[in-house]
């Protein structure tokens, strides 16, 4: 596996470094047939609308589309490639809606913000952030959206 190198201009953030309203838009991701096929192989989801061109063309989509969870996975990955990122923590969960199909050739990016934050009650030294997020295509259409809840380390000595 070739791991891309990123030239970030800003350091990862502790929970204490974030503020409600902070926002960021990620780099982009090109959806290809090969990437959809790789996701199907990874997950075992070979539903024909994702992997069978003839079947997909006859469907109401008219073409192959990416798995909904592939879009969510891409959104999560794109956040980690953004200038606004946290020190490694723990994902607490997602609420996520699939609004429009993601098609081969779509160029996706995620726009997210800090919607709310609070210190953890059960884990001193940690804080919780809620990140409302939108997965956009090249036409600025929101194809998926929701929230990601994260537990993030606090700056040592700040609590």
From TrEMBL:
Pfam annotation, one family: MaoC_dehydratas
Top-level lineage group: Bacteria
Ranges where the MaoC-like domain occurs: 26-121
CDD domains with a match to the protein in the record: R_hydratase_like
PANTHER family reported for this sequence: BETA-METHYLMALYL-COA DEHYDRATASE, MONOAMINE OXIDASE-RELATED
This protein's name: Acyl dehydratase
């Amino acid at each position: 596996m070739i791991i891309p190198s990123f030239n970030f201009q800003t350091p990862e953030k502790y929970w204490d470094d974030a503020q409600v309203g902070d926002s960021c838009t990620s780099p982009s991701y090109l959806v290809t047939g090969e990437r959809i096929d790789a996701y199907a192989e990874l997950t075992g989801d070979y539903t024909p609308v994702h992997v069978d061109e003839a079947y997909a063309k006859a469907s109401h989509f008219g073409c192959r589309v990416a798995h909904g969870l592939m879009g969510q996975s891409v959104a999560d990955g794109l956040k980690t490639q953004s200038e606004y990122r946290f020190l490694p923590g723990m994902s607490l969960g997602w609420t996520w809606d699939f609004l429009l199909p993601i098609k081969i050739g779509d160029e996706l990016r995620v726009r997210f913000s800090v919607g709310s934050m609070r210190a953890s009650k059960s884990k001193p030294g940690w804080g919780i952030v809620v990140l409302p997020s939108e997965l956009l295509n090249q036409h600025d259409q929101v194809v998926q959206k929701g929230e990601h809840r994260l537990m993030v380390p606090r700056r040592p000595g700040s609590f």
